[in-house]
Amino acid sequence: MIRPTLSKVLERRTAVAYAPLLRGSQCRAGIARFSLPLARRTSLRLFSTQPVGNGPSSPASTSIADLSKMLSAINSPDSLRQNLDVIFQTPASLPTTVVVQLLKKAGDYQANDLLPVIYNRYYEIFGYADVVTAEVIDQYCRSYNLAAIRSLYFFLTKNRCPISGVVCEKFFLSLLRSMENERVCLTIAKEMLIQGHHLSLKAVHQALSLPAACDSEMIITILRLANPKELPAPKMLPILSKRIVSLSQAKRHVSVYDLYNYIVLIAPTRNHSQFLPYITKSFEYFVERNLSITYDSSDSTTMRALTRALLTKRFNKPEDLSPFVAFIAKSPILSGIVMDELFLHFAAIGCKNVDSSTWSQLIACNIPIEQSKVQPIVKTLKQNGHADIIRGFLRYMEANSPLALSKDTVHELEQICKENENRPISVPFLERVASGAWDGLAAAETTAFTRELPSLSTEEREKAVVSLYGAALHSRDERVRELLRAGVSSLGVEAVKAVVERCVKKEKVYSTLEAKQFVLALVRSKRVEDANAVAQLLHDKLNVGAWRRSEA
């Protein structure tokens, strides 16, 4: 019977013990198999490393058996320092289990200054390894050295190391222990979402209990990182409900409202009336702190100023208005809302997808609109032609101020609704994009616009691309960039060049990400020569930095 060598035993044990860390990672083959040497990388240094210890000189090929004896003999920080140089002079097949044990001993003996030395020596010789990185993070956590963990993360990402999802989770949970690391944690979370990594259910609950998970942005980010199979939307609701209560008690009222919106987003059909007391406090806080207006529903002048300020400063996007309407229809704050200001704001910006029950609740509030205040609303409705708002406004006026609108005005508004229903969707779509109201676009609208592109004139398509480029500069919605690429693909190369110059001249902003869309659209249409020509224009004439033709 042939007995396995100690080297094989160590490799086998390491593979079993650290399989979760290695699974799915993109570690180099030599590191994953713990046997093949990698090229020495002396140019990358995490920390400046000086020779450690004054141990006896040893041959360049210490055996695995000798390594095992050395590890067993290390029983103090001094012996660890003395043997460190000898251990790293072993053959290139040094198992990661040995390095992990060295890091554990450094942590056990509180020799925290040796942690970066050990990690750096291994990294320079063998490159990146998930198991070693995970262990050094654990040891840094024992001494609460979050600054070192943060520096390690930036170092690894700068050098484009293939960090696995498990190690990303360790970085995320470790840095969440301090509120100072909130932005770094959001960066890690964004990268995890891009790479398709998820937090385990245990990690989600642990993350929600850490100090940095104290506002709506971080709470929602943590829940988005959860595996949908382990934490579906119905199971998120109890977590969010408890958070709303705790944040309200902590007077984090802005976060309360944001979490309420997220609940409405993931469970739109549920009854959320139990949250209204907390949301009302959120509004009152916002009014008093952010608008410097004292909430007093009995003072019409104050409430007019409040309504205008509240809408223009907090609810200035179409996607914000629908939940706002749903809220004020049920909330005690409605008694102070001035309806003509509300409808004027709706008409100016546009509020889609407000269901009939919400309009019915608004109508039931029985707050009349004075005749002198009606004309500005009608004028704005005629200009913008939002059919949903027009119908809601007519219903409201019929119920609460039937004499304020003449029959001719009612007929004219009804005609506008009919005309808008028969217009090609691209026309109102482009008008909304040009006005900056692109965030509330429905999927059906974007699909219809793409379908109608070929039927538009060249001039209309050029205008569409200019509008979409401006929207893409200010939007994180990938749909806007998809539409931009679709518009670019429908144009000839000379038209694309002209549009590029118009876009940059109009916006006066150079954005590498948005500039790429012009070239990517042509590449995906298999128009490589046209793509090169446009890329050359971006690089030479417009001087768009960090963008090279080779990236196409």
Task: Summarize the SSE layout with pairings.
Elements: H1 6-17, H2 19-22, H3 29-33, H4 64-73, H5 77-87, H6 96-108, H7 114-126, H8 130-142, H9 146-158, H10 165-175, H11 182-195, H12 201-208, H13 216-225, H14 233-249, H15 253-266, H16 276-290, H17 300-314, H18 318-328, H19 339-349, H20 356-364, H21 374-384, H22 387-400, H23 407-422, H24 426-434, H25 443-452, H26 458-473, H27 478-489, H28 493-507, H29 512-524, H30 528-540
Helix pairs in contact: 6-7, 6-8, 8-10, 10-11, 11-13, 13-15, 14-15, 15-16, 19-21, 20-22, 22-23, 26-27, 26-28, 27-29, 28-30, 29-30
Number of domains: 4
Tally of extended strands? Answer: 0
Give the overall pLDDT as a whole number.
Answer: 71
From the spread of the alpha carbons, the general shape counts as: flat
The helix content, as a percent range, equals: 55-70%
The whole-angstrom Rg is 31 Å
**What does the main sheet amount to?**
none
**Alpha plus pi helix count:** 30
- H/E series, N to C? HHHHHHHHHHHHHHHHHHHHHHHHHHHHHH
Indicate the low-confidence ranges by residue numbers: 1-61, 544-552
The separation of the N and C termini measures 59 Å
Share of residues in strands: under 5%
Structural class label: mainly alpha
Keyphrases for this structure?
disordered C terminus; mainly alpha; 4 domains; 30 helices; disordered N terminus
Structure, explained:
With 552 residues, the chain is mostly helical. The chain folds into four domains: 1-163, no CATH class; 165-231, no CATH class; 323-422; 428-551. Helix content is 65%, strand content 0%. It has 30 helices and no strands. The chain has helices at 6-17, 19-22, 29-33, 64-73, 77-87, 96-108, 114-126, 130-142, 146-158, 165-175, 182-195, 201-208, 216-225, 233-249, 253-266, 276-290, 300-314, 318-328, 339-349, 356-364, 374-384, 387-400, 407-422, 426-434, 443-452, 458-473, 478-489, 493-507, 512-524, 528-540. Helix 8 runs parallel beside helix 10. The longest helix has 17 residues, at 233-249. It is flat. The chain starts with 5 loop residues before the first helix and ends in a 12-residue tail after the last helix. Residues 1-61 and 544-552 have low confidence and may be disordered.
